[in-house]
Write a structure and sequence with these properties.
The chain has 89 residues and is mainly α. The chain has 4 helices and 2 strands, in the order H-E-E-H-H-H. The mean pLDDT is 81.
Length: 89
């Protein structure tokens, strides 16, 4: 596959922070794993609510920032935080 060939040529370093995959909503640190999930991400559905909920549940979570135009992500985060707080209280 072309996308796999292109990603094979990309130098991916170990991240300082985990890369949360849209494919499985899990944190990844290994460059080879990251390369594999990037290839899958192109053809897989995005797991937004699962990703945001996992981030909010993490003990290290303090803040979220939205970069770029609009406030779509902010609305999703607010909804997930609300659902998390009221499901687990």
């Amino acid at each position: 596959m072309v996308r796999c060939q292109v990603l094979a040529e990309v130098d991916i370093k170990s991240p300082r922070l985990p890369v949360i995959s849209n494919v499985d909503a899990k944190p990844h640190y290994d460059p080879n794993e990251i390369r594999e999930i990037l290839a899958k991400q192109v053809v897989s559905p995005v797991q937004w609510e699962t990703i945001i909920t996992a981030m909010v549940k993490a003990p290290e979570f303090e803040k979220s920032y939205e970069l770029g135009p609009g406030t779509v992500c902010r609305g999703i985060v607010k909804r997930c935080v609300f659902l998390f707080l009221y499901r687990w209280c």
